[in-house]
Amino acid sequence: MTLTFQKPYEKAAEKRRRIGEDTDQTLLGVIREYPRLSLYELALETGWEVGKVDGSVKRLHEKGLVKFECFIKAGRRVKLVSAIDYRPSSNVFTIPKNILENASWKDSAYVYGLDRLTIGVSGKPVPEWEETAELKSKAPVKEIDGTLIFQLLKDFSQFYALEKSIVTLSTVKDVVLLIIEGQRC
Fold first, then answer.
1. Residue 112 placed within a domain
2. Contacts from 125-131 at CB under 8 Å and sequence distance 24+?
3. Which residues contact 111 (CB under 8 A, 6 or more apart)?
4. Predicted confidence band at 4 (pLDDT cuts at 50, 70, 90)?
5. Same domain membership, residue 129 and residue 102
6. How far is CA 159 from the centre of its chain?
7. Is pLDDT at 132 greater than 70 in this prediction?
């Protein structure tokens, strides 16, 4: 019978590898739930240091499980992380209905091109926007499991170059603002 002993540094390396795998799986779950977050935002979401997130993202990228999407925001390059199978739609948007105050959205949304970087969307006409918006349309709205889904028309997609842009969605009462933050690198 032959006895083999594992050297202490091998034991420690194996333990670090297992901890790294656990970290990677936890982070991958967060990335799948919240695609297109930066390293900093992932650190906030997990409560980890940015360095820990960065190391885990690098390992996940080497394994082919995540991808990076870069864009320019306020003159700075920003890198967002998504699962490799994440496929965003450039002109379809979803909004949990419960984040809207007095959600008056029914079968259609009123869409307004407010300026070069902002699209306003509402469940009912907004008189101020009706007067000033250059682009206007109605978009069909579907509600599935408390989530409102609407698709912008081709005119909006082309004018705002949505297929190349990063769009942030924010809400104020019963209105949604789509803010075009930057172009992908």
1. yes
2. 126/175
3. 119, 120, 121, 135, 136, 137, 138, 139, 150, 152, 153, 156
4. low
5. yes
6. 21
7. yes
The structure's pTM equals: 0.64
| The residue count for the chain | 185
Residues 99 and 170 in one domain: yes
3-state secondary structure of 109: strand
Residue reference for tokens 């959205």: 105
- Domain match, 21 and 69 both: yes
Residue 45 lies in a domain: yes
Boundaries of domain holding 119: 92-183
Q: What is the pLDDT of residues 100-124, one digit of tens each?
A: 876 678 889 999 999 999 999 999 9
Domain assignment present for residue 2? The answer is no
Are 167 and 132 within one domain?
Answer: yes
**CB contact set of 171 (below 8 Å; sequence gap of 6+):** 95, 99, 100, 177
Same domain, 121 and 163: yes
Total domain count, the chain:
2
pLDDT digits (tens, 9 = 90+) for 59-97: 999 999 999 887 666 667 778 899 999 887 778 888 888
Residue 3 lies in a domain: no
Of 58, 61, 52, the C-alpha closest to 23 is 52
Local structure of residue 146 (DSSP, 8 states): T
